[in-house]
Amino acid sequence: MGLWTSFESWITGVDIEAEQARADKADATLHDLNLNAYQSGQWTLQQYQQAEADLARSSAITADIANQVSGAFKQGALEGLAAEQAAVKSALNNVAGFSLKTVFGFFPWWLWLVAGAGAFLYFGGAGVLKRNL
């Protein structure tokens, strides 16, 4: 049993490799039942061939249960992660967006421009401008 399969078995509570063995055994038993029904005359050749074709399609679906479970597990984990990221991003945007709109929306844009120019001059911007010009 691989480490990843062990982890998935622990998370899901199902022994995936045992389920694969059980599915394979069920397919073999169904094949034997189909063959017995045909040999005993309960089925015609056409019925037997149809049953075997159905069994082959079913076996193809359950041929690799571990990879199917692993793929579904990974897909579900990615979808869950994306949902959590979207929820956190939405919450942060709502909080930050509301805060910024409240602070910056309280005063008109031109007042912010005047305040920024005043702060620039107050913190020594005039001297920087004199030296550079």
Query: Can you count the helices?
Result: 5
Query: What is the chain-wise order of helices and strands?
Result: HHHHH
Largest sheet: none
Strand % is under 5%
Which helices and strands, and how do they pair?
Layout: H1 3-12, H2 16-39, H3 45-61, H4 65-106, H5 109-132
Helix pairs in contact: 2-3
Summarize the structure.
Helix content is 88%, strand content 0%. With 133 residues, it is mainly alpha-helical. It has one domain (3-106).
Provide structural commentary.
The chain is an all-alpha fold and 133 residues long. It has one domain (3-106). Helix content is 88%, strand content 0%. The chain has helices spanning 3-12, 16-39, 45-61, 65-106, 109-132.
Tags for this entry?
133 residues, mainly alpha, 5 helices
